[in-house]
Amino acid sequence: MSEPTSREQTPLWEVFVRARRGLSHTHVGSLHAPDAELALRNARDLYTRRQEGVSIWVVPAGAITASSPDEKDAFFDPAADKVYRHPTFYEVPDGVAHL
Amino acid sequence: MYGNDFSAPADAADDTPGGGLLGEVEAAEAELRAAAARERRGGPAPDEDLAAYFDDVVGAEQKIEPRDWMPEAYRRTLIRQIAQHAHSEIIGMQPEGNWISRAPSLKRKAILLAKVQDEAGHGLYLYAAAETLGISRDELVQLLLDGRQKYSSIFNYPTLGWADVGAIGWLVDGAAIVNQVPLCRCSYGPYARAMIRVCKEESFHQRQGYEILHTLAHGTPAQKAMAQDAVDRWWYPSLAMFGPPDGDSTHSAQSMAWKIKRFSNDDLRQRFVDMCVGQAEVLGLRIPDEDLRWNEERQAYDYTQPDYDELMRVISGNGPCNRERMAHRRAAHADGAWVREAAAAYAAKRTEQKEKVAA
Q1: Beta carbons of A30 and B131 less than 8 Å apart
Q2: For the whole model, what pTM was predicted?
Q3: Which UniProt keywords apply (chain A) (predicted)?
Q4: Complex ipTM more than 0.85, yes or no
């Protein structure tokens, strides 16, 4: 097997790290690894050398479906004209407390 | 958290060089968050010119992200720059790796190992950022091995003594940080974010180098002479790291307009010189420049320019260690082939087994 062919098959993984208990996992970057186990070990070595996390997720990059920036406006449009979903939309009469 | 096995240095962390730069990195990070918070528009309108939209986003100090439309030349410039940066981190492991086995104490050895490991990590962050622009890791690695993409010329100089490890940390990493801190504000999101990470880690590199030199410079006369010799050899190559003078710099103007680059080569070089003078005084070491003196009018130091002909010779492959560095990298890549093949074969076998069980 020639080198480039075997390397092209090394999948890309997206890495998410939970910095501390109570926080959500956050995307920190990506790396290449042949399988999930090695991806996890590599992610530990690459992204948590200074105790940056207490938990790591690795996700095959190909498994992520992303919305396109081109359709961003249209895609998120339905929420744009529904300001009444925010509490600030409503007028509270003077003197009303605990609302 | 750097090396919490060791006691903290006696002087306050804020007094050590790089403190101000670290503050700038944090400011860049805060700015990145603030820019994200004030995002004033989404994608381009259906009938909007994509180039105008791109200019608008960059002009508003917002970040361009991988799937956004971008001019082809912007993409190519970034790939070239980020790849060269990544290659530099990888090749940059060699001059210092040379001293891991001969570090003077276990503490210094552990620190140097961690530093060289960081360089590998920085290379990987940057390769990952370059890949978001649509080039594969294999292509990037191959471009380096074939000599079709460059790495920083500084790594073609030899590390002749232990003090060189100190001089590299103080001067080379110091110059790198001055160069890189403005990149934390680069208009391309993945590069800016990678650089914030790199710069935060890099400041430990500069401080450990400074500490090595400080220890040597306050040791025996022979140790001090060794430190001075290292500074004498690394000073001008470090000044050359900022690239050719502004008049001769080919990529500058467009990169400034795209907010990839924020300051000119000469501005950054001046900033570096001004920073180093006071630091050298504390070390008790001499910067090897007879014409170095404060210019009241410019409120900056006058200094002797590095030898740009030498820089060009080193860039074009004729520095002291170019061939050695490339031969070493090619050998390391070839020697690692069996590991990559074995890992791929193992992953394929396990997938096969899983499929069998599922069937």
Answers
A1: yes
A2: 0.87
A3: Oxidoreductase
A4: no
